Amino acid sequence: MHLAKPGRFIDPFTDFGFKRIFGSEPNKDLLIDFLNQLFAGEKYIVDLTYDKTEQSGPLSADRKVVFDLLCTGADGEQFIIEMQRIRQEFFKDRCLYYVSSLIRDQIPVTVQKWNYRLKPVYLIGIMDFCFDDKADRHFISRVMLRNEKGEAFYDKLGFIYVEIPRFTKGEEELVSELDNWLFLLKHMNNIDKLPLFLRRPIFKKLFDIAEVSNLNKQDKWHTTQH
To answer: Which of 121, 128, 208, 217 is 20 to 30 A from 38, comparing alpha carbons?
Structure first.
């Protein structure tokens, strides 16, 4: 760990920065807005409840799972949100393990007969690295179970991966609110004021939350730890 001089705004790719922006009940409107832009109409989130991020299996020998963020939607669907700065060789495997643990935990332990109906589980991975060096892949990958014809086979399990280094748009190329979000996440640690094109109230709130000068002494200390 080394000390770093913080910019005007916190780095969203640190554990502290990510959870300060997206990880608390008073700020859940930020996370809801971001996720709705990511899902692009595929689903619409009206509310979220934050769940505990450490999950234990039904047996004492089961390995604990610790998520960055875990939320439940108004219809019972669950969202795992992972921010990963450093390349991890088995990141895809880890994501599969995470969603599998949530699916396993849906099994009611007090019901003798169960109809196997599951609630949807989604994992959103926001990555400050790329899976590979392929130049032609989009910065967002949407993954779900499909049959050999490419038709949706099961729509209650989904993954959205955002490879931030692949997002190379400049200010003049931003055409959607999702573009604005990704531009902000990528550059927030290096800008010194809220750009004019981000003057939407949700972004104004984000910048107020993320401004280092608004932090208390202990939280400012966190911004110097990498």
So the answer is: 208
